[in-house]
């Protein structure tokens, strides 16, 4: 072997060793996050899937869990009227709160980004509802909706929004939009600040007005932000527990019941962990499918600077 070949061999070995060290370093840095992912996400999902295959309620405390396979899922979709109602209510909540929250957040972000005086006060005012705990928000709006004594009750004493099956869901939607629109606004403000102002100057020279500039520049450039906040707002629409427990407890007549609150009722009020786990799995599948559809349909049409 010549000296040139020997040097090349040593260089290749050194490069392989360096690459191996870099690989192990990368795995080491990812390890803490992977441990958290496995312990707090993957393991609970796997445990929920496993428990959903058993009958485990008050009637089986003596004998222990009884294997029933997919019977819990069959029962949910064929004989459980409350589950169907909660499923339908969640679809309405998601279908309304997601676009309304995004539209309101975009409007607030545009105003907060353009305002010249008191910009900090405007942003804090919009963001303030997000800082309040969920229990506090529920109590505030419970007071607003209280007949005779609340703010709305003072203006319209005969309105009983939380006691009417036709209005209770819409009363909750107003509260949810109020709670999360300011949070979504923060992401859109960040997105607006990342848009090159030269694009607006070029559009102005070409004769584009404010509406055309928004349609052709602002909104397309905000699409990565929209994908992200859509997933956030969708998740918020399916994790209602605190608000319902304080304000309606799923009533009246399950008109405001939601999937996650129904999980709470099944697991803690009725001690039926088998059915509660099945509902949890259904909820996970819904969120995963919706997230996948969002990424596969919107991500391909998104421009990343």
**Per the principal axes of the C-alpha atoms, what is the gross shape?**
flat
Q: Mind telling me the CATH superfamily name of the largest domain?
A: MetI-like
Strand order, main sheet: write it out.
1-2
Number of beta-strand segments: 2
- SSE succession: HEEHHHHHHHHHHHH
For the largest beta-sheet, the strand count, sense and barrel status come to: 2 strands, antiparallel
Corresponding CATH architecture of the largest domain:
Orthogonal Bundle
Structural class: mainly alpha
3D architecture notes:
The chain is 74% helix and 1% strand. It is an all-alpha fold and 305 residues long. It folds into 2 domains: 3-51; 80-301, Orthogonal Bundle (MetI-like fold), CATH 1.10.3720.10.
Could you name the key traits of this structure?
305 residues, 2 strands, mainly alpha, MetI-like fold
């Amino acid at each position: 072997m010549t000296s040139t070949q020997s040097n090349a061999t040593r260089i290749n070995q050194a490069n392989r060793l360096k690459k191996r060290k870099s690989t192990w370093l990368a795995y080491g840095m990812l390890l803490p996050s992977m441990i958290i992912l496995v312990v707090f996400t993957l393991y609970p999902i796997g445990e929920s899937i496993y428990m959903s295959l058993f009958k485990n309620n008050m009637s089986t405390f003596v004998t222990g869990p009884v294997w029933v396979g997919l019977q819990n899922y069959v029962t949910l979709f064929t004989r459980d009227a409350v589950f169907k109602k909660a499923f339908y209510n969640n679809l309405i909540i998601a279908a309304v709160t997601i676009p309304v929250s995004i539209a309101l957040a975009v409007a607030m972000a545009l105003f907060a980004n353009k305002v010249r005086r008191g910009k900090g006060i405007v942003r804090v005012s919009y963001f303030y509802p997000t800082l309040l705990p969920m229990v506090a928000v529920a109590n505030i709006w419970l007071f607003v909706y209280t007949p005779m004594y609340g703010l709305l009750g003072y203006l319209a004493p005969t309105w009983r929004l939380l006691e009417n099956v036709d209005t209770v869901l819409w009363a909750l939607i107003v509260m949810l939009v109020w709670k999360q629109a300011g949070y979504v606004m923060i992401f859109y403000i960040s997105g607006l600040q990342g848009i090159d102002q030269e694009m607006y100057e070029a559009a102005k020279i070409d004769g584009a007005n404010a509406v055309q500039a928004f349609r052709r520049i602002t909104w397309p450039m905000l699409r990565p932000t929209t994908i992200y906040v859509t997933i956030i707002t969708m998740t918020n629409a399916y994790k209602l527990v605190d608000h319902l427990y304080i304000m309606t407890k799923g009533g009246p007549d399950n008109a405001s019941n939601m999937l996650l609150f129904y999980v709470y009722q099944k697991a803690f009020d009725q001690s039926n962990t088998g059915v509660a786990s099945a509902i949890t799995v259904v909820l996970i599948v819904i969120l995963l499918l919706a997230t996948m559809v969002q990424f596969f349909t919107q991500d391909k049409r998104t421009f990343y600077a």
